[in-house]
From TrEMBL:
UniProt domain Response regulatory: residue ranges: 3-119
InterPro entries membership: CheY-like_superfamily, Sig_transdc_resp-reg_C-effctor, Sig_transdc_resp-reg_receiver, Tscrpt_reg_LuxR_C, WalR-like
Residues annotated with 4-aspartylphosphate modification: 54
Pfam families associated with the record: GerE, Response_reg
GO terms, molecular function: DNA binding
Organism: Thermomonospora curvata (strain ATCC 19995 / DSM 43183 / JCM 3096 / KCTC 9072 / NBRC 15933 / NCIMB 10081 / Henssen B9)
Biological process annotations from GO: phosphorelay signal transduction system; regulation of DNA-templated transcription
Protein name, per record: Two component transcriptional regulator, LuxR family
Ranges where the HTH luxR-type domain occurs: 134-199
Amino acid sequence: MLRVMLAEDMHIVRAAIVALLDLEEDIRVVADVASGDEIMRVARAYRPDVAIIDIDLPVVDGITAARMIHQELPETRTLILTSLGRPGTLRKALTAKVGGFIMKDAPPGELTEAIRTVAAGRRYIDGQLALAAWDSGECPLTERELEVLRIAASGSGVEEIAATLFLTTGTVRNYLASAVSKLNARNRIDAIRIAHASDWL
């Protein structure tokens, strides 16, 4: 019997997943939580074989929680559940040593297959997302370019960015122009959009 823990903040979604998994003869949901800060306490108490974790949880996000589980309870495999199929998010999840990554709109049979695969110590990655991550490649921006874009994304102008980073306004403009060029963006706003969509910011 595979013992599963579920972390999902949307009550209806959580109840639906629990009901779905209860139909399986070899899977039993031993605990469910609605917030990321509850995950480690409950995981320590129940020692599940697989923790299914929503990526967008309050207090502690799913990837951070998965990393904590891997460090403290390596025998518990983690499966990230998300509605955000961004390649950058997948790369972050893999870096956190998650066992699997599945979309919330996947067919029910895919979730149970993912649980069994991850419990067996193998990886389970949504096929379309894996291809998108493969195609998207690494971030072409330097750390400083990302830093400038990150501050620009909060609405700061060139002068504010320069003051924050102790740079000249000319240097900030150069970093912004370089980021726009490297991302083949139309302008600074487009560069921020592309970087956000790729999960680089």
